[in-house]
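Intended use. Records like the one below are meant for learning the mapping from a protein sequence to its folded structure. Do not use them to infer anything beyond what is encoded.
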Amino acid sequence: MSEYILEMDNICKSFSGVQVLHHVNLKVRKGTLHALMGENGAGKSTLMKILIGAHRADSGTIRFNGEDLEPSTLTVHQALGKGISMIFQELCLVPDMSVAENIFIGREPKIGKTGIVDRKKLIRQTQELLDSFEITFLRPTDSLRGMSTAKMQMIEICKALSYHSKLIIMDEPTSSLTEDECKTLFRIVERLKRNGITFIFISHKMDEIYTVADEMTVLRDGMTIDCKPVNEMPMQELISKMVGREISTFFPPRDSQCGEKLLEVRGLTKAGKFQDISFSVHRGEILGFAGLVGAGRSETMQCIFGLTPGSSGDVYINGQKAHIRTAVDAMKLGIAMVPENRKLEGLYHVQSVKFNSTIEVLEKFINSLMVNSRLEEQITQEFIDKMRTKTPSQEQRVANLSGGNQQKVMIGRWLATDPKILILDEPTRGVDVGAKAEIYEIMNELTKQGVSIIMISSELPEIINMADRVYVMYEGRVTGCIPYQDVSQEAIMKLATLEATEGHDNG
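Structure written out for the chain above:
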């Protein structure tokens, strides 16, 4: 018997005449965690969707657990039956159903032949599942309505594990998890590996990969570049193979030339979410906001941008009190916001790249019911080029782009509004290492042009290396402001986990 549980050979796939996979090979050993690495658009998700039957391959072969599968006809139902499951980057849960109902949807235990759901058995099975994976912060009867993204991610993981799969594919499973939740997940993975379960892991978090993975395969431009044990591929070599070029300075040097105070927030409060938030941001400054999931960072920025009303507090632009009741009010004042969740809050997925790139600046090319199509195309192409977005055409549906390229379209859309103040909520979540470097360069260039940036990030390296100052929040309060020269992981985590009572700088 082969030492490999999975062998994918010479897999080819095209969409609308565009070749996205070119004779890709992937071999995964049983009972290991295999990292699938590559830039956004390299073909990782497409390859995995072929493996689970969501896409049909044009050609190639798949051998799983000693059995040949036909990749041109394989279905999702067949793949699940063979023991292959996938946790997608974008959550697929029903918010008005309970934890138990979401995990066992379509597979609920029935009372005899009545077809009636045996709720006691359903709850018992769910509780046994949660207990087996040491998940204590969820109950079978909990509703998903209002639940944090982190908790819903763990439900998706439990759902995949409930199928008793032999191979579990995880596409950015930790993107919304706290540090403790990540540790819980990795403990579960290690236990399952010892029991012979195999994992394919897609992640852009390099440190994470070098901690948990056994082997890795690198894809670039739809082709297999290399496959090695993790300990035989140094990080710099990995990055070079992923992007096809050297990235000598991952974080560009900050040459901050901060000007006058542009935005000031005084005592902003929203009952139950955050309270007494005060800070300022200067022209040409990158102001970082750090904190654990649920600290209130996103909620604060949504209030400033007019998406949700505050209970009290004031916002000042150039020293003048601003009256922001809607996002339109904020945009008129030169504020733009790139939201955290591009699926639910950011993009029109059934529409084209062109539509999504220009929807916020219609007045630039529409006049009295006449559309200047040439100008619309020029605006779109400008931001495709600026963001280095990989798309076959401006007419491509955004839903057909990789997650990272979707993110680039969303950032480009808001840059098209020529903002004075740009709020970026997790701007590089789910974005590959090459695209991250490009986004950082764009941020630097914007600040040189006098744009002020407020950046919320859960990735401490980018906060530490990109921000001129860092505000830290804990349970809805600002617990401190750290100047650039004093920023460190230790300083941030101290303020992010222990509430400071006094002495913070509101700058």
